[in-house]
Amino acid sequence: MGKVFERRLLSILNSEKPHVLCGGLKGLEKESLRIDQAGALSLRKHPSRLGSALTSKFITTDFSEALLEFITPAVSSSWEALSFLCDIHQFTYENIDDEMLWVLSMPCKLDKKQEIPLAQYGSSNIGQMKTIYRNGLGLRYGRNMQAIAGIHFNYSLPKDFWPIFQNIEHDHQSIENFQSSSYMALIRNFKRFGWLVLYLFGSSPAFSKSFDSLVDNGMRKYDKDTLYQPYGTSLRMSDLGYTSKVQASINISVNNLEDYINNLREAITTTESSYADLGLLADGNYQQLSLSKLQIENEYYSPVRPKRVALSGERPTAALSRGGVEYIEIRSLDLNVFDPVGINQNTLRFMESFLIYCLLEDSPEMTTNEDKESMTNHTATANYGRSPNFMLQQDGKKISLKNWSLMLMDNILQVAEMIDRNNNCSDYKKSVQAQIELIHDANATPSARFIQELHETKLDFAEYGLLLAEKQKNYFADLMPLNSKKSKLFRDEATTSKLKQAEIESVDQPPLNQYLKDYFKS
Question: How far apart are CA 410 and CA 16, in angstroms?
Answer without folding.
Answer: 25
